[in-house]
Specification:
Elements (H helix, E strand, L loop, with lengths): L3 E5 L14 H4 L7 E6 L8 H11 L5 E5 L6 H7 L2 E4 L4 H10 L3 H9 L4 E4 L1 H4 L28 E3 L15 H11 L5 E4 L4 E5 L2 E5 L4 E5 L2 E6 L11
Parallel strand pairs: 1-5, 2-3, 2-4, 4-5, 6-7
Antiparallel strand pairs: 1-8, 7-10, 8-9, 10-11
């Protein structure tokens, strides 16, 4: 069994409907009749029931059944019995804190390393990196650790954009990631734009979608990565 994990930048592209652009990307990870488990812990301003319904409706074209971890008395058992895991967006700090609260970080990592398909978007993608130190979210809660699932042995920055509104004097995303690489020059950061994703299949990592990505690593800043590039070297 090998890792089969899809890290989507976002749940939407432009004005598209929720998760519609992800259907064709998620489909190859699924098999008809499977029971998948949704983890809604990143949802702060929406109830878990509402979040589940939203995801079920959006992903209805997939040949799977989706239940949520909050519906089970034993979250660990729910993960053990699932055929695949979906982790939604929201606040990354809240998501990781809840995973630590229920002691799920190591279990999810182990299951994914042993071949359980994993699909995340936004915060659900952020936690697949070595840590959540390059999330875009506000630290509304303090997890026991910033150490994440380490499905990818580097840092991920979903929703990447370096756009700066006229008259806005805050730091750009590139400046924020520069700060990270100054503090930690040895760890790469890959910023993925909306509409794109990283797909890890064992020792192979591919940038999929029609958007470029960007590398930040030491003195290499905002280096463009062409769409559909093979990024397997970053798994070494």
């Amino acid at each position: 069994m090998t890792i089969n994990a899809l890290m989507l930048s976002a749940s939407r592209v432009g004005d598209s409907d929720y998760l519609t652009h992800t259907i064709d990307l998620i489909l190859p990870l699924t098999q008809p009749g499977q029971q998948w488990l949704f983890i809604p812990y990143a949802g702060v301003s929406v109830s878990y029931d509402e979040y589940l319904t939203k995801v079920q409706m959006a992903l209805a074209p997939l040949p799977i059944t989706i239940n949520s971890i909050h519906q089970f008395a034993d979250p660990k058992q729910a993960i053990q019995e699932a055929a695949g895991i979906l982790v939604g967006g929201g606040n990354t700090f809240q998501l990781l804190n809840e995973l630590y609260r229920y002691d799920l970080v190591h279990l999810i990592r182990e299951k994914v390393q042993n071949g359980m398909p994993y699909v995340g978007w936004s915060a659900g993608s952020n936690i697949t990196g070595a840590s959540i130190r390059t999330t875009n979210d506000m630290p509304i809660i303090e997890p026991p650790s910033f150490t994440a699932l380490n499905i990818l042995p580097f840092q991920l920055n979903p929703h990447y954009t370096n756009y700066q509104m006229p008259g806005h004097n805050g730091e750009t995303r590139a400046q924020r990631l520069l700060e990270f690489t100054i503090v930690d020059p040895l760890t790469p950061v890959i910023g993925i734009q909306e509409g794109s994703a990283l797909w890890r299949q064992g020792d192979k990592l591919t940038l999929i979608g029609d958007q470029t990505a960007y590398l930040f690593h030491g003195k290499q800043q905002e280096v463009e990565i062409a769409a559909n590039s093979d990024l397997s070297k970053y798994l070494k």
